[in-house]
């Protein structure tokens, strides 16, 4: 299912976790929609999931400094966006990062939001998807 403007229950888009993995694995595919990021809401808060290409050593250093750990092998981040901030005030410095993950499998297995596994929230109609970023690879 291709997402357009609007709000969608994640469980209405993904039949199982493999649908999500295919979409965000980073491998363009004519058979499946591939995306770089996803905006979603859970429990009244806005979140953004994104896969950042870490191709340059400088970028790895900048992100590592911001989040306070070595991100040299990480491809994914999940951030909590403060919906009270105007878009022109959003920056890497005022976003709360929930986690950085080496690959899509690490994210699916280890990402937790408010003590709940992201993959469970995704498939149990607890997440509302509000937007997707197209793959830029």
Question: How would you describe what is shown here?
Answer:
The chain has 137 residues and is an alpha+beta fold. The protein has one domain (8-128). It has helices at 10-13, 17-24, 57-67, 104-110, 118-123, and strands at residues 8-9, 35-42, 45-51, 76-81, 96-101, 112-113, 116-117, 128-134.
In a nutshell, what does this entry contain?
The chain has helices at 10-13, 17-24, 57-67, 104-110, 118-123, and strands at 8-9, 35-42, 45-51, 76-81, 96-101, 112-113, 116-117, 128-134. With 137 residues, it is α+β, with helices and mostly antiparallel strands.
When the domains are counted, the total is 1
- Category by helix and strand content: alpha+beta
* Beta-strand content: 25-35%
Helix content: 25-40%
Topology:
Blueprint: E1 8-9, H1 10-13, H2 17-24, E2 35-42, E3 45-51, H3 57-67, E4 76-81, E5 96-101, H4 104-110, E6 112-113, E7 116-117, H5 118-123, E8 128-134
Give me some keywords for this one.
two-stranded antiparallel sheet, six-stranded antiparallel beta sheet, 29% strand, 26% helix, 137 residues, alpha+beta, single chain
């Amino acid at each position: 299912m291709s997402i357009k403007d609007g709000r969608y229950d994640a469980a209405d888009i993904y039949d199982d976790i493999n649908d999500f993995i295919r979409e965000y694995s980073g491998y363009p595919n004519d058979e499946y929609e591939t995306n770089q990021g996803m905006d979603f809401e859970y429990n009244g808060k806005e979140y953004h999931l994104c896969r950042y290409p870490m191709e340059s050593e400088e970028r790895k250093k900048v992100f590592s400094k911001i989040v306070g750990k070595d991100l040299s092998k990480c491809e994914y981040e999940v951030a909590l966006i403060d919906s009270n901030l105007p878009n022109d005030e959003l920056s890497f410095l005022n976003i709360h990062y929930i986690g950085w993950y080496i690959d899509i499998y690490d994210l699916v297995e280890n990402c937790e939001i408010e003590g709940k596994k992201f993959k469970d929230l995704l498939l149990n109609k607890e997440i509302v998807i509000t937007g997707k970023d197209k793959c830029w690879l």
